[in-house]
């Protein structure tokens, strides 16, 4: 699984979108202390990265980032965000300024990545996007290049396929592409829950917006911590390597900041945010390898839950749907049979596995609309892909996790006694981030029906 490294070590890059607006100066911070304030607040909140969004700050800002120890993703400010094709002269000016930005920041050790395009803003043709991204990489091969952040969004012309990052925007999210084509998986923008703080707001037209509203600081903090738990699960299971939360401060009518626009109020519980962020980064430093696990072919086995408090439960089918149930030596034979499967070579890929029912030969564990069930092998490519599972070292560091062949990063999971295909990013209750890594880790036991 491809990862970015810092001094030879994978460290998850976790930051915020920083647009750099000020109520008393627009794009200009009122003092040097103010210029450093937002960066220092990133450190206070446990972030290790900042994405400087569609703006280039004065060199003094980069000095503060260097001094404080923050990684910087530097955006190349875009042309119009409207769906207007740039003229040749406009495109040439954009490319000239991109070169200037790279050349001016070679000596800033905090700068680790350049973001060339964002959500299709000012994008003229996909060929131009690819060409400009490569030109930035050629100009400074020592930095990562994100050719197009949020190419899955808005007016983008699609994935450029080059650069070092495969970047999605998912609001509220989180979500992530799988790392492919020699590019790492990053979440260039996500989050955006908001809270109003009367007396500390400003909008030029009196309108305020957020990607979702929360009623209290506690609810806002709870929501953020849940998003970070989901992000950590995507890091563990899907291969996500960086994420940018929107955003560090409110910006005029946007009220989704950690701080109000005037920097007077921290809207979340700072200690809880810091703890969640630092825990994710610490987990990234200690990730176990995603090594394949060999299972005994054509042997009968039973899959036991490893989540603490539920370790007497086994995966079984009932009326075609998959559940977990307590199985003991005194259990009825039908239950023991339902909880036993024959390990077969994967129907879609023999390097992976399929699990055939003992008491319904020819039926296999498969997912359909995220729910796991048993279905007969009808010979279709879809059924065979849905019924193929790749065995990995358990995501808790031991035992086995079973990854979907056709949905990489999603795993066989138990939740409330039901079995689901889950990536743990959040959303439906069965995809809850809580306890996800344990819920998708199974002990492969001797068969209840030998």
What can you see in these coordinates?
The chain has 450 residues and is an alpha/beta fold. Helices cover 24% and strands 27% of the residues. The chain contains 9 helices and 24 strands. The strands form 8 sheets. It has an 8-stranded parallel beta sheet, with helices on one face. A 4-stranded antiparallel beta sheet has the order 17-16-13-24, with no helix packed on it. Helix 1 runs parallel beside helix 2 and helix 5 packs parallel to helix 6. The chain starts with a strand and ends with a strand.
How are the SSEs placed, and which strands pair?
Blueprint: E1 5-6, E2 9-10, E3 13-18, H1 32-44, E4 49-52, H2 59-68, E5 71-75, H3 88-104, E6 111-118, H4 126-139, E7 144-149, E8 165-170, E9 184-191, E10 193-194, E11 212-213, H5 217-237, E12 240-246, H6 270-285, E13 300-305, E14 313-318, E15 321-326, H7 333-338, E16 341-345, E17 353-357, E18 363-368, E19 371-376, H8 381-386, E20 389-393, E21 400-404, E22 411-415, E23 418-422, H9 436-439, E24 442-446
Parallel strand pairs: 3-4, 3-12, 4-5, 5-6, 6-7, 8-9, 9-12, 10-11
Antiparallel strand pairs: 1-2, 13-16, 13-24, 14-15, 16-17, 18-19, 20-21, 22-23
Helix pairs in contact: 1-2, 5-6
């Amino acid at each position: 699984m491809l990862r970015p490294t810092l001094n030879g070590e994978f460290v998850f890059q976790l930051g915020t979108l920083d647009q750099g607006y000020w109520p008393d100066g627009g794009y200009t911070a009122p003092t040097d202390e103010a210029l450093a304030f937002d960066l220092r607040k990133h450190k206070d909140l446990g972030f290790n990265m900042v994405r400087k969004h569609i703006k280039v700050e004065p060199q003094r800002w980069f000095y503060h980032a260097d001094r404080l120890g923050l990684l910087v993703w530097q955006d190349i400010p875009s042309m119009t965000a409207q769906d207007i094709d740039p003229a040749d002269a406009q495109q040439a000016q954009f490319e000239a300024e991109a070169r200037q930005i790279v050349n001016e920041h070679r000596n800033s050790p905090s700068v680790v990545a350049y973001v060339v395009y964002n959500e299709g803003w000012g994008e003229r043709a996909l060929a131009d996007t690819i060409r400009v991204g490569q030109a930035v990489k050629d100009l400074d091969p020592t930095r990562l290049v994100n050719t197009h952040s949020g190419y899955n969004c808005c007016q983008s012309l699609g994935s450029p396929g080059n650069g070092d990052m495969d970047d999605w925007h998912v609001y509220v999210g989180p979500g992530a592409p799988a790392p492919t084509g020699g590019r790492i998986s990053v979440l260039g923008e996500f989050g955006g829950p908001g809270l109003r703080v009367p007396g500390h707001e400003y909008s030029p037209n009196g309108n305020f917006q957020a990607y979702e509203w929360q009623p209290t600081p506690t609810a806002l903090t709870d929501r953020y911590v849940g998003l970070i738990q989901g992000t950590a699960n995507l890091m563990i299971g899907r291969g996500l390597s960086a994420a940018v939360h929107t955003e560090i401060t409110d910006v005029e009518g946007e009220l989704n900041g950690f701080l109000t626009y005037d920097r007077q109020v921290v809207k979340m519980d700072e200690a809880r945010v810091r703890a969640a962020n630092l825990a994710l980064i610490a987990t990234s430093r200690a990730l176990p390898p995603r090594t394949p696990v060999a299972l005994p072919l054509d042997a009968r086995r039973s899959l036991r839950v490893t989540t603490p408090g539920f370790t007497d439960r086994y995966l079984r089918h009932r009326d075609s749907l998959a559940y977990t149930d307590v199985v003991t030596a005194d259990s009825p034979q039908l239950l023991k049979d339902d909880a036993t499967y024959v390990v077969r070579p994967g129907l879609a890929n023999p390097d992976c596995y399929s699990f055939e029912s003992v008491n319904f030969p020819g039926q296999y564990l498969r997912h359909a609309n995220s729910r796991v069930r048993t279905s007969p092998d009808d010979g279709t490519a879809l059924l065979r892909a849905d019924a193929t599972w790749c065995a990995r070292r358990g995501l808790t560091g031991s035992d086995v996790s079973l990854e979907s062949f056709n949905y990489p990063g999603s795993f066989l999971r138990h939740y409330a006694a039901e079995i689901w295909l889950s990536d743990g990013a959040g959303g439906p209750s069965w995809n809850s981030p809580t306890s996800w890594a344990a819920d998708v880790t199974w002990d492969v036991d001797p068969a209840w029906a030998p």
